[in-house]
Automatic annotation (TrEMBL):
Domain of life from the UniProt record: Eukaryota
UniProtKB keywords: Leucine-rich repeat, Nucleus, Repeat
GO cellular component, one term: cytoplasm
UniProt organism field: Bombus vosnesenskii
Protein name in UniProt: Leucine-rich repeat protein 1
Pfam families (alphabetical): LRR_1, LRR_8, PH_LRR1
Domain PIF1/LRR1 pleckstrin homology as annotated: residue spans: 1-108
Length: 407
């Protein structure tokens, strides 16, 4: 059995890291050295050492570290020579390789099964295929699938109506571009891709998507930095979008949006926001808490707000449930239906946010207020007015006073 991976070799005799070794693209294989010799060896090859280095497995493996194997990382420590092989690879293939290695160590695998050819030098290509671009439907790898090493996948303008579940096998995927298709829904498992940082879904039919549960997954909430959902005929954005805690760039232009969720104010890392060419009449007050660099709100309908019609007061003593929910959301701890009941998840997702940053639920004062365009370093708009309307929720009379007289 062989494994394509990146390996860093650490010599334990070197007490100081005078020279820091870099991780090298490698192939490691398990097999027998000769027909008569039943001992099992591990062969490590790199582009610099194509003949490879052989490590005896029998009675020579000190320890195997697999604490981070779900992240595609493992370390094999040998007794002689005193080397640590620090491996990074596809987690599924790595798990299979480590499983075979463990069976070989305890002699639970028949050595004759491990082909001798595994220990012959392998032909190493100059680089693994990490970028895949499909421009025509005829080029689509329906049967063979995508290379497991794919980090960037571009499936643009193929008129696909459904999401290809083969993509979920690409555990190293960083960039996924599905723009200019007819995709109307995304699977829950999309949110489990550990390394996905850029997701481009422009020019699809996400207006037909009733559920956005993939946004609830921990991996995508922690890693996604760019989300492009422009030109999808969207009438509203899901509340879950406020859970993308690492999001830096959100593109939602050329939709049918007339309002935005207050949860946008939770995107504390957001720097670039494109809301142009929608039907927005106002902006959520919660985004005034963000430190934006560029905001594009051009070609919207801000002039149609009638402020007097929207004032609403429900300031009162909050319930115990609301107090507990408010305290919990202040911790910014992640939550989902696997931790708390789904009814509580839904309750927490529907929180509004005061200009002070505090969440509120049933007791608040809501007021439409015009503020100066100081929500970003660079703001792009269609009118010459220096004011923009904001839909503001206030958790107390003190916050109302501060917003009205100290803004």
């Amino acid at each position: 059995m062989k494994l394509h991976c990146n390996i860093k070799v650490n010599n334990r005799l070197f007490t100081t890291n005078v020279i820091r070794r870099k991780s090298l693209r490698s192939i490691i294989a398990i097999g027998r050295q000769t027909v008569k010799n039943m001992d099992i060896y591990l062969l490590l090859q790199t582009l610099q050492n194509k003949h490879g280095t052989k490590y005896k497995v029998n009675n020579n493996v000190d320890k195997i570290y697999i604490k981070f194997i779900n992240e595609g990382k493992a370390t094999i420590s040998f007794i002689e020579p005193p080397h640590d092989l620090i491996i990074q690879s596809d987690k599924i293939q790595l798990k299979s390789f480590i499983h075979i290695l463990k069976l070989a160590i305890i002699k639970k695998v028949d050595p004759s099964v491990l082909d001798i050819s595994n220990l012959n030098p392998k032909c190493m290509s100059s680089a693994p295929k990490i970028k895949v671009v499909i421009n025509k439907s005829s080029e689509y790898p329906t049967l063979e699938g995508f290379p497991r090493t794919t980090e960037e996948l571009y499936l643009v303008g193929l008129n696909r109506k459904s999401f290809d579940r083969q993509i979920l096998r690409l555990q190293s995927l960083r960039i996924l571009n599905l723009s200019n298709n007819q995709i109307s829904s995304l699977p829950n498992e999309l949110g489990t891709l550990q390394h996905l940082q850029e997701l481009i879904l422009s020019q699809n039919r996400l207006d037909r998507a009733f559920k956005w549960v993939w946004l609830n997954q921990v991996a995508i909430r922690s890693n996604l930095k760019l989300l492009d959902i422009s030109n999808n005929l969207l009438y509203k954005l899901p509340q879950q979008i406020g859970k993308l805690e690492s999001l830096v760039n959100l593109k939602a232009s050329q939709n049918m949006l007339s309002f935005l969720p207050q949860s946008l104010g939770n995107l504390h890392n957001l720097k670039y926001l494109d809301l142009s060419k929608n039907k927005l009449r106002y902006l959520p007050g919660s985004i005034r808490n963000l430190h934006l660099i560029t905001v594009d709100v051009s070609n919207n309908d801000f002039s149609s707000v009638h402020y007097a019609l929207y004032s609403k007061s429900k300031i009162n003593v909050p319930s115990l449930t609301e107090c507990a929910a408010t305290s919990f959301l202040k911790t910014r701890c992640s939550y989902d239906a696997s931790i708390i009941p789904f009814t509580l998840v839904k309750y927490l997702d529907e929180a509004k946010y005061c200009l002070c940053g505090n969440p509120c639920f049933h007791y608040y004062l809501r007021k439409f207020v015009s503020f100066d365009c100081n929500i970003a370093t660079n703001i792009i708009k269609s009118t010459e007015s220096t004011l923009l309307p904001f839909d503001c929720y206030f958790c107390s009379s003190k916050c109302v006073y501060y917003a009205m007289f100290c803004k």
